[in-house]
Amino acid sequence: MKPFVVLVIVVIMQGVSGSCPEACLDIFDPVCGCSPSGVKTFPNSCYLELANCQGEDYSILHTKCCNENDKKICDCKNRVCLAVIDFVCAYSCTKGCRTFSNTCQLGIENDCCGGDYVYRYKGECVSEGCRDDETCGKCSRACDRSYLPVCGCSSNFGFRTFNNECLLNRENQCNNTDYSITAYEPCIRDTDDASEVVNGCGDCPPICLAIYDPVCGESATLNTQTIFSNQCFLGGENRCRNGDYTECS
Question: What does UniProt give as the signal peptide span (predicted)?
Answer without folding.
Answer: 1-18
